[in-house]
Design brief:
alpha/beta; 3 domains; 7-stranded mixed β-sheet; 14% strand; FCP1 homology domain-containing protein; HAD-like_sf; UBLCP1; HAD_sf
Length: 408
Amino acid sequence: MSDPPSKKAASEAAILKQRIHDHFHRLVKEGCSPNEAAAKALAAAKSEVETDQAAPAGAAVEVVPPMFSSSPTQPSQAQIEGSSRYGPLCLALVGPFRSICVVGSPRPGKNLLVLDIDHTIYDPSQHAGSRGSVVKSDASGFYDESTIARCRPGLHEFLTEAYKHYDIMVWSASDMLRILTLLQQLGIAGAGHSDYRIVAVLDIDSMSKLESASAEAGSDESPSYAGALVQTVTVPEGAIPGQQIEVKSINDGSPIIVSVPPRLKPGDTFHVAVPGAVSSASEELGVDEEDFQLALQLSMGQQPSSAESGGNPALIPKARRRGRSVKPLSLIWACAEFAELYTERNTVIVDDTVDVCAANPNNSIQCTRYYWRDHATDAELSRLSGYFAKIASESEFPKSHTRWRDHM
């Protein structure tokens, strides 16, 4: 028996009121004035209600478990803590360290896709004179033109396709407020795209630090430039331009990280500056580091490049030491709220950083590093989308994704 009209109307009014409330507080946190936030919140809430009402009878409705409900009758401690720290978008803080911010509902039977942000799906580097850790807007409230370029091409289409077979989480090595703000601005979380939902967000507080011999081998800031300043690197089999690779330092044998330059293929060689060597040498000699690099390259016989670099040789790319901060997927698998849903058998993490991928050798997919200047030619998300659809259709995931491009 259906509810009487008066009861149904009261229920719909309560839902609309709650949605207006949630949108209003989100918009104010994003910098809108109270008047502007009120108008936008009302429009967004009405649009959502109309979408719900337009859904065909019998259509599947996403059911949010009571613990993750955005308007519980009796909020749990996890919910109270989450909303007080990060606002209404955070439905609860869960996990062994209460560091996983739940923003949506998990779906039993789905695989899990964990995505990095910076240089994986979004480029925060300088564009038109400004950096983009979050999206900037002008006095009229419009985001600047860099927003489209900063997002990796096909981002929302990729997430829409992935959502058919995977629950999605985001894990970035930055702070939670910055991540949540950016995801809302890009329409990935909150009142964004209706074709997919994010289940949870993890930040730097969820990462672990590895103790290793490489950490004791020295930092990028070496006190002396004794030893080689530059070393030759050979592109290994399977590596492509834009991908990070790990090699051994010519000075002390410690692992260092370099990126494969454009237009190179396996077997080609290129030069990189040993971590800390060039900066230390230029400081000790009292010369500008950039001038020192140019002189060093000319001494190696490099010819001036094209006009795109002003007629000067491009600076020698710098290697860096292997990082110690990693993203252990075991933290998610150990979380009581997700332990029955996700395991090492149905989880993949995508990251551009080879160090992070090494922490989950059987579950990591290393993508190329994305920069907005490559927006017109980058097709990495399209490749990943095809790969994810392929492995989701198989009886079990591959034991390794190291050569995932070979399976396309």
